[in-house]
Design a protein that fits this description.
The structure holds 2 protein chains of 2 kinds. By secondary structure, chain A is an alpha+beta fold. Chain A has 7 helices and 10 strands. A 5-stranded mixed β-sheet of chain A has the order 3-2-1-5-8. In chain A, strands 4-10-9-6-7 form a 5-stranded mixed β-sheet, with helices on one face. Chain A is elongated, with a radius of gyration of 25 Å. By secondary structure, chain B is mainly α. Chain B contains 16 helices and no strands. Chain B is globular and about 65 Å long. Classes of the chains: A alpha+beta, B mainly alpha. At the A-B interface, helix 3, helix 4, strand 7 and strand 9 of A face helix 4, helix 8, helix 10, helix 11 and helix 12 of B.
């Protein structure tokens, strides 16, 4: 391969800046690393495939560019006549096959871990409605709806006159966030009451369809406290774009406090 | 063939407006029908494109400016349906009608009357689909995938959309039967299957794939229809049905459909690159086998469109591995095209530019395709703009660039005139630049967490959306150049020779340009 080729070096530099520099991470050109072991694993897997693609891409694009420059008619008026090369053909079938196997192994391992919902400490049932989420803390007698926050809901209307930039977390804020304890394996039972929705929080690497008549399972275990945001990821009608998900990961003590507050009937009525 | 002979046979071109209209309505000539398909698909390209521009205008900045969310959903849904069934499939059907008989030395398609019907179903079906905009409840808005139960919440458009899909399916099935029968029975003496031009091969395989896939779609939408009107519960959980079954059936059609859309483009690229490299196609047999393997694999990987649906682990592993395997034959094709250029004698006329654009950008779309095959990562990519970017990279610089390459390549053969090379090159460069401006930032949007099919978005997605929208309008406007090139080429220009391109090989280049109304009344012998 012709390494001194200018465009290739430039492309390498651009890619290196795009995907390696922490500055760019703030501009969100890449997937978040997230706050669960699974999400970091998924991020690692994503970066692995990305780099494999970048390396293969550089090789293939270099070959194409070199062919176009070196074998243009003005430079190479007499074309060669060959139309086969068994060695090359075997190599470019076998090498990709090996690369694919090497990629499939870690992917399959991750997948097995993702599907393992055993030994959870807390179970939450999530039901998708047009167009809000319902959360049900199984065994805790706590349940509530979670819908787009009032400020976003006012600003999103056509001709509302409210600047989206002036609204906190425009379209990504809810009235009642889901609250979960940190470092706890939370099992999710996901279903829907009307049409298909999907519950997605990128920082947990959890995306699962909510389907009427089915109960899907998923789980996450957040290792950091904080507020994490997501959206419905399956077209569910008119207000599909207005079904945000907000999860607050709090310390175990705070969670217990929050839980006892919620369980008081008077307060849950007010919700 | 002498000119007088052509005049005699082209003699039934009547004078007057009504006879002229009747001639186009009743024609059974493969060239006329090819032209009808191509003109229709060009028209639909702008109809579907305008809908995409409504979508991109709305997404130019956060907040709702122009349309309501429900109309936005109608736009995304019908944009997809029109581009797939009204634009790209008819475009390739047009190429098949025009070029398959010319390339295999046949006088016409095997079933000319069926051919007429295949075409004329299209405008009516499409009109029915478009008329739903004026019905109570508006056009379909549940996405082109029509997942129930959402799709059954539709208004009056519902039966119209399903009937339109049925008609489009019937049209495709008849066209594929015609193509298979033509290729199997009307090849010139001496043209064995392994001597057929690559374009004919890819269309043969595509036609079989259509016969496999389209009836499945018909079944799926018929079940939707009976669920909606006759109280059945195929997909209604409340009645014991299974909404996920719809997705399985739909994608058993939908994934082969993806390859139905791209494979004729593979064929065109396999004609164009050798011509402008002045060198035979590298690895012809490997190309045929790769195409056939892709077709086979495409029929067993459907569930990779629905990894988040809650499949068993074994199912996810199977669909991940089979999907990844598709990268191998696809890679073989890319490498073979590159090897065809290697040590060739390359010139860069417009068809070649589009073919090279295809090679670069389709490869990019293939890479993101490999990424979405990895299930754990796909949980993050699924239903985001990353996927929108991925499939637009394979469909626009893939299928559409293939169609453009073919159009410029054969335009002189169709019209008898050379097109304006400078305008063609301008069209290519503007298209190639704006395709990337439009779709590349969408990768970032998806990775950063923007779901697809939303009319409005959080403010952190604003910058890339603005860039993407600017690109989309540039892309749309650049296509007007294409229309101008075609009009100019039909009206006149430098006379095209029989063998238009220096490096062109094949029977289509042995007939005069423009190709006379009837060709190969005496079959040519292929050695």
């Amino acid at each position: 391969m012709n390494i001194k080729s200018g465009p290739v070096a430039a492309a390498l530099a651009v890619l290196a800046v795009l995907f390696a520099s922490p500055v760019w991470a703030d501009f969100e050109v890449n997937m978040p690393r997230g706050v669960t072991t699974i999400s970091r694993e998924v991020y690692g897997l994503h970066m692995l495939i990305l780099w494999v693609c970048v390396v293969i891409g550089i090789a293939v694009y270099t070959a194409m560019i070199v062919a176009m420059i070196r074998y243009r008619k003005s430079r190479n008026p007499t074309p060669a006549k060959f139309s086969h090369n068994t060695t090359a053909e075997v190599l470019w079938t076998a090498i990709p096959a090996v690369i694919l196997v090497l990629m499939a192994i870690p992917a399959a391992e991750s997948l097995v871990r993702i599907e393992d919902t055993r030994d959870s400490e807390l179970t939450i049932k999530i039901t998708g409605y047009q167009w809000r989420w319902h959360y049900d803390y199984i065994d805790e007698d706590v349940s509530f709806f979670s819908a787009l926050a009032r400020e976003s809901n006012a600003a999103r209307r056509r001709g509302s006159g409210i600047d989206p930039y002036g609204v906190d977390h425009y379209l990504l804020d809810v009235d009642n966030p889901l609250v979960v304890p940190v470092d706890t394996k939370v099992r999710l039972l996901i279903t829907a009451a009307d049409v298909v929705h999907a519950w997605w929080v990128p920082d947990f690497a959890v995306k699962k369809d909510a389907i009427p008549g089915f109960v899907n399972e998923s789980w996450f275990q957040a290792t950091e406290e904080g507020t994490f945001r997501g959206q419905c990821a399956e077209l569910c009608g008119m207000d599909h774009g207005y079904m945000p998900i907000v999860v607050q990961v709090v310390s175990k003590e705070k969670f217990d406090e929050w839980l006892s507050e919620q369980a008081r009937p008077a307060l849950s009525q007010a919700d | 063939m002498s000119t007088t002979a052509i005049d005699v046979h082209a003699g039934h071109r009547p004078k007057g407006v009504l006879p002229w209209i009747l001639r186009w309505i009743t024609t059974t000539n493969h060239k006329d029908i090819g032209t009808l398909y191509l003109v229709f698909s060009l028209l639909m390209f702008f109809v579907g494109g305008s809908m995409a521009l409504v979508v991109r205008a709305e997404l130019f900045q956060p907040g709702l400016q122009f349309v309501d969310p429900y109309f936005f959903n109608q736009m995304t849904t019908v944009h997809a349906l029109i581009m797939i069934f009204g634009m790209i499939m008819p475009a390739f059907a047009g190429f098949a009608n025009w070029m398959v008989p010319l390339m295999i030395g046949a006088p016409d398609m095997a079933l000319p009357r069926l051919n007429n019907w295949s075409f004329w179903l299209l405008p009516f079906a499409t009109a029915m689909l478009l008329l739903t905009f004026f019905l109570p409840g508006g056009a379909p808005a549940a996405g082109w995938t029509m997942y129930p139960p959402l799709s059954t919440q539709a208004g009056a458009s519902f039966p119209f959309m399903i009937f339109a899909v049925h008609l489009l399916g019937i049209s495709s099935i008849m066209a594929s039967i015609n193509i298979i029968v033509t290729i199997m029975n009307l090849r010139a003496p001496g043209m064995t299957l392994m001597k057929m031009p690559m374009f004919v091969w890819t269309w043969l395989i595509t036609a079989y794939l259509m016969l496999l896939a389209m009836p499945v779609l018909a079944g799926a939408v018929t079940m939707l229809l009976t669920d909606h009107f006759f109280g059945t519960s195929f997909f209604r959980a409340a009645g014991g049905g299974d909404p996920v079954m719809y997705q399985h059936i739909f994608w058993f059609f939908g994934h082969p459909e993806v390859y139905i859309i791209i494979m004729p483009a593979f064929g065109i690229i396999s004609q164009v690159i050798p011509t402008f490299s002045r060198k035979p196609l590298f690895g012809y047999a490997a190309m045929v086998y790769a195409t056939a393997s892709i077709a086979f694999l495409s029929a067993i990987v459907w569930s990779h469109h629905m990894f988040t649906v809650g499949m068993p682990l074994a199912g996810q592993l199977f669909f991940m591995l089979t999907t990844m395997i598709i990268a191998i034959p696809t890679g073989v094709k890319i490498f073979n095209w590159t090897a065809t250029m290697w040590k060739g004698s390359l010139t860069f006329e417009t068809p070649m530019l589009f073919a090279i654009g295809f090679l670069f950008l389709f490869t990019l779309g293939g890479f993101s395709g490999l990424m979405v095959a990895i299930v754990p990562a796909d949980f993050q990519y699924h239903d985001t703009y990353f996927v929108v970017a991925h499939f637009h990279y394979v469909l626009v610089p893939g299928a559409l660039f293939g169609a453009f390459a073919g159009a410029y390549y054969w335009l002189p053969k169709w019209t008898g005139h050379m097109y304006d090379e400078r305008l063609g090159k301008l069209h290519f460069w503007l298209t190639a630049i704006f395709v990337n401006v439009t779709f590349f930032p969408q990768h970032f949007l998806g990775l950063a967490g923007m779901p697809r099919r939303i009319p409005d978005y959080a403010v952190q997605f604003a910058d890339f959306n603005a860039i993407s929208s600017i690109g989309a309008f540039g892309l749309g406007l650049a296509q007007l150049i294409f229309v101008w090139v075609i009009i100019k080429c039909i009206r006149g220009g430098e006379k095209a020779t029989d063998r238009v391109w220096e490096g062109a090989e094949g029977l289509e280049w042995t007939v005069p340009s423009p190709a006379p109304h009837h060709t190969f009344q005496t079959p040519p012998v292929v050695k």
